[in-house]
Design a protein that fits this description.
Blueprint: H1 5-38, E1 49-50, E2 59-62, E3 70-71, E4 82-86, E5 102-105, E6 109-114, E7 117-122, E8 127-133, E9 135-137, E10 139-142, E11 147-151, E12 156-167, E13 170-177, E14 182-189, E15 214-218, E16 235-238, H2 240-245, E17 249-250, E18 256-259, E19 268-272, E20 277-281, E21 302-306, E22 309-313, E23 319-324, E24 328-336, H3 344-347, E25 358-365, E26 369-376, H4 382-387, E27 391-398, E28 403-407, E29 442-447, H5 448-455, H6 458-461, H7 467-479, E30 485-490
Parallel strand pairs: 1-24, 2-24, 3-28
Antiparallel strand pairs: 4-30, 5-6, 6-7, 7-8, 9-12, 10-11, 11-16, 12-13, 13-14, 14-15, 17-18, 18-19, 19-20, 21-22, 22-23, 23-24, 25-26, 26-27, 27-28, 29-30
Helix pairs in contact: 5-7
Length: 491
Amino acid sequence: MKLNENDLAQKILSEEEILAQKEELRLKKEQELADSLAKLPKGFRFESVRKTDASNPPIVIDIANRMDSIKEFKLSDVAQSIEYIKMQNLPDSSIANNINYKYYMTDKHIVASNLYGIHLFTKNGEFKNTIVKNQLSGVKYKEDQNQVLVYYSEYAKIGGSPNVWSRGGQLYYNYRNTNTGQNYIMEVDCSKDLINTQYQFDPENPLAVSGAGKVLVDLNRGQNKPFKAPYPNGMSSFSPQNTYQYIGIFTPDRNTYFSRRSRKGNMLEIFNTKGDTLAEFTKFERLVNFKARAIRGFDYGTQYEKDGNYYFRSDYNDTIFRVIPPNIIKPEYVIKLGKHKVSKQDASHPKFDLKGKIVPQEWADGKDFIFIELTADDNYCPNSRKKKSVRMLYAIYSKKNQKLNFVKYDPYNYEMDLLENDIDGGFAVWPSSYMVNRENNIMVSLLGRDIKEKVNSDEFKNSTAPAANKEKLIQLAKTCSDTDQVLMLVK
């Protein structure tokens, strides 16, 4: 059924009214919490509560008893359509355009971030503002290997983390200046043009923030310490996607923030905006009398934002919690591994045989499905891949049917892409935790050259996807340059 313009205008108005009502309720709760915290005596700490709601218990995802439940999946089994949004090129040509964006969606905007900074676009991909332009030294991106190299003897960074979050019309990001030691949570009003933003470091005013917004939280509490590398002549390397997965700092409101970077070994700490500890949650998965010289680590837990809430699973834990400030973590999902579960103590020892053991890896929480990646029999590393001693397992949990099925797949094929795209014959899709937006669409970051290569591939030409959908992708490829950034939305 088609809507006329009046019906469409009324529908849009109703959606805006719903957003406004949600924002009003959120602000009311935020103020109630602010009033409660203001009445607390100095140094007060809440009792830390790991609370299960009897009327809404955690969902148990049974891995152990579903190992034989293998099913062939294609993209159309979990999605109906695909939209491509071609992002307008940045007006600042000095900003490199050779790394895919990490995308994030607010109610009204698309936020694109990567190693070089954070940028704001409309929902149609039109450039609106640069939030922060990162200034880097001692950092090199090797495009052919998709690796970022950091040389500590030369390293310096002034700018923002690629991880952002939002509430209403406000956007938040972590700003750091390694020269001065500044470490802030910044708040940006996305409804305003950022015409007065200073993007270059000012040596005459070194503490001036070279990015948009105002300081919401000083994470150093006024005690700035310039960055000092633990190994001044050393280096590190990582893929950009590794940084996209990690959320070290998060603010659920203007009263509190969370940190997973605990010096005390806690799994989570909740603070007020002055840096006073409100609650601490003990981490039970610890190493005790660990005497091996080397340590093996391959479970780094899970963390993601969904609908303004923060979810996390600490390493070698089987529970995904939702954080409710100021002092509650509520179990939302329990991953049942049974005899396949391994403790941190055993998994960390390089001589412990992992045969038969399963460890959760990636986790993407969509509207109707949860996408789970697991490793089995060994840790995932170059040696295990070479020996074919580690199995990669992929499973999909249906929230509607409350059942889990493993994807039919060669577990020793470490290069195969999932899920086969039978919607338009294009890119296979397996979502990441940080690339599911608040409308529950799966987001995929592409460059123009990726699209050109895809439509010229035998795989695409031989695809049995609808011809009309394939033609749309062909036409998109014709309009793209190699370095154009494109957001693929799987709905």
